């Protein structure tokens, strides 16, 4: 084991710890809030799903990367290898779909009651669960063709001009099936990123108009509600910005590495960091929202009162 591999392994291991700690904390918080009628909001279900997808992304991408840099020679059989790569690919697609759903949901929520999207506001809550189920079904079927082209690796040698991961490599693939899958993924990415940009720009324009409209409003309740919605929208815009940066940076590095004559440890490390950068950063962007922190403190207080009723009333 080289010192560089050891340093890279500890770096990725710290990313695993930081990412899992933040996502699991928020996942538990949102699960608790979902069972509190007086605190939960429709968007909380999307945030809960996002935290779950982040945890799965970290588990199926970063943990195998850490095992590689620590030279853990666990050789995957074909079934395990296909399962790991398939699960990571699906969670990567789910992450894209979930952040798009979140941005569109917030754009409709903050839109004016007189806008052409106003009729959707009353139906948003009932559409969340079917939308999440739909993106699971679509992504699960979309990545099925790649399972046929993956097999377990018998050693650590990387085969040139083929997609490879730590313990898996691609076999010779049929041209038409590969081209169809890549085309479908590119179309999906372009369409979803366009929709994400549209919803983000729409929210920015709404915030700008709202700021101009409320400059002379001195009502405390109006200002409090406005600032609450602004903080939530700012958090979602930050999430969208971070997602687009990490998603397209990782896509560029992945395609660049495919055309390299041999595997590069530096590119492997960069790819590992970028592919799990968004799941790692995401919970801490949300924790920057002071309303979420106050909700967490309130939920924790309610939790204490539930189990220590005598102390709360005595």
How is the biggest beta sheet arranged? 2 strands, antiparallel
Q: How many helical elements?
A: 12
Cα radius of gyration in angstroms: 22 Å
Segments where pLDDT lies below 50 for 5+ residues?
Answer: 154-164, 218-225
Which strands sit side by side, in order, in the main sheet? Answer: 1-2
Portion of residues in helices?
Answer: over 70%
Beta strand %: under 5%
How many β-strand stretches? Answer: 2
- What is the succession of H and E elements? HHHHHHEEHHHHHH
The end-to-end span amounts to: 60 Å
Mean pLDDT: 75
Shape: globular
Tell me the structural class. mainly alpha
Looking at this protein, list some descriptive labels.
single chain, 314 residues, mainly alpha, two-stranded antiparallel ribbon, 12 helices, 2 strands, 77% helix
What does this structure look like?
The protein is 77% helix and 2% strand. It is built from 12 helices and 2 strands; from the N terminus they run ααααααββαααααα. The termini are far apart. The protein has helices spanning 3-34, 43-69, 78-109, 118-121, 124-142, 144-147, 175-213, 220-258, 265-275, 277-287, 290-307, 309-313, and strands at residues 150-152, 168-170. The protein is mainly α and 314 residues long. It has a two-stranded antiparallel ribbon. Helix 1 (3-34) runs parallel beside helix 9. Mean pLDDT is 75; it is low at 154-164 and 218-225.
